[in-house]
TrEMBL record:
Residues 34-153 form the Phospholipid/glycerol acyltransferase domain. It holds the Pfam family Acyltransferase. Keywords: Acyltransferase, Transferase. This is 1-acyl-sn-glycerol-3-phosphate acyltransferase. SMART domains: PlsC. The keyword Cell wall biogenesis/degradation does not apply. It comes from Amycolatopsis panacis. It comes from the Bacteria. GO terms for molecular function: 1-acylglycerol-3-phosphate O-acyltransferase activity. The lineage of its organism: Bacteria, Bacillati, Actinomycetota, Actinomycetes, Pseudonocardiales. CDD domains: LPLAT_AGPAT-like.
Length: 224
């Protein structure tokens, strides 16, 4: 019921309020595993992708959000599941592997999984070097990769704003990328790096952002 509510009630309501300009949505394959690789401008990017993609999209979510007790905890867990979140443990040495395994399961089941290759949202508006997890997923599952560029989402909830604001939003889906030529080579770090760079270049062409060939530090790493 919650999935139906999100898809047929909440989704249309959000689109009516924000009227996002969506381009290239026909580039999302109707069937089979699809890996959406997007730039990351704001905390609400996940919601924007959810409500503009024609298929149900799965994302990573902190496992602790799914373990609340009582009626409230169960409601939150079911709501997150309806929104497409997949629970995964974070903050430990195995977190990266757990995240990849969660994404791999979605793709192996023929679903759509979304990832932000930069690893965190951009605080300076530039596009930063991508982590190779996106390539590992694409190569190990054979999923088509659809690059996505988000525009204006940082205006929905600027730093310090508690309530989302109306903002002009644009979402551009690029042509799907096929890496089947590298079948069986997913263990090669050089291949993973090459595939990741190709994906990031596709996002760059769509977004027009300035590119920085260094990883973006997470906010909690600024003082480190």
């Amino acid at each position: 019921m919650l999935s139906l509510l999100v898809r047929f009630v909440l989704g249309p309501l959000v689109r009516l309020l924000y009227r996002p300009r969506v381009e290239g949505v026909e580039n999302v394959p109707e069937h089979g595993p699809v890996l959406i690789a997007a730039n990351h401008r704001a905390a609400l990017d996940t919601g924007v992708i959810t409500f503009t993609t024609p298929r149900k999209v799965r994302f990573l979510g902190k496992a602790e959000y799914f373990t609340g007790k009582g009626l409230k905890g169960r409601f939150i867990a079911k709501s997150l599941d309806a929104l497409g979140y997949v629970p995964v443990e974070r903050g430990n040495a195995q977190a990266g592997l757990a995240a990849l395994e969660a994404g791999r399961k979605v793709l192996d089941d023929g679903g759509v999984f979304a990832i932000y290759p930069e690893g965190t949202r951009s605080l300076d508006g530039r596009l930063h070097r991508g982590h190779t997890g996106v390539a590992a997923l694409a190569l190990s599952t054979g999923a088509k990769v659809v690059p996505v560029a988000l525009f204006g989402t940082e205006g929905i909830q600027p730093n310090g704003a508690r309530i989302p604001r109306l903002a002009k939003i644009r979402v551009q889906f690029g042509a799907p990328l096929d890496f089947s030529r590298y079948e069986g080579q997913d263990a090669s770090s050089a291949i993973r790096r090459s595939v990741t760079d190709e994906i990031m270049y596709a996002i760059l062409e769509l977004s027009g952002q300035e590119y920085v060939d260094t990883y973006h530090k997470r906010p909690d790493e600024k003082s480190a």
